[in-house]
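Sat 14:20. Reprocessing the chain from the morning session after the first attempt stalled halfway. Input below, unchanged.
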Amino acid sequence: MLATVIAGVVSITGAAIFSFTLLSKVVERMVSLSVGIMLATSLLHALPEAFESGADPRSLFATLLGGLLAFFVLEKMAILRHSHHHEGDGHHHAHGHDAHQAGKSGWMILLGDAMHNFTDGILIAAAFLANPELGIVTALAIVAHEIPQEIGDFIVLLNAGFSRLRAYVFNLLCSLMAVAGGLLGYFTLDQASGLIPYVLVFASSGFIYIAVSDLMPQMQRRATVKESVPQVLLIALGVAIVLALNHAY
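Finished this time. Tokens:
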């Protein structure tokens, strides 16, 4: 429960600080760090833990494949919905294009965040039930990838007419859905421990998809040596953090 609360509060507060002070360079660096943490958590901790559980490897690989395809479809639906709303209107929408639609988009962001945080809570519970060490690095991975995502959400909310305080408070309330998800995951998965490996694999597919399909392409747009060297070093730092936590526990 402490991990779900900390993950929510830290990610929301960090995102608010970066968003409100416009520290764009810090945001870019955070993306690189989160790639290393997410990939290391998935490939060095969660997946090995799942495959060492004794569950059928073919079923686990099928879950991994299904998870990757599911995240692809969800992202495709989000992109198509966004494109359909804006296509052919001949307007630039970067700054408050339509108050009514912007307001609706703000509430949709909050609803989506609440559902996302709920599933994060279930994942944290599954990870702790499998292994306390895995629970800690999973919570860390969630914080790392949530901060860049929440920064984007804050921008949408501010564009939708939310004040800074209101955007922060509503985002913080949504983050507490992770606690509800953690409670459900703990009591449900504790009674059905055979599902834990599959939850870990599905969650890993999400981490891998986000890192490889979303975050790394963003980083590839900055192809200069000056930008690339810090990116590689921060990815390595993210991996090192996960390995260090592994040693500590």
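Residues 1-15+61-83+102-246 form one domain.
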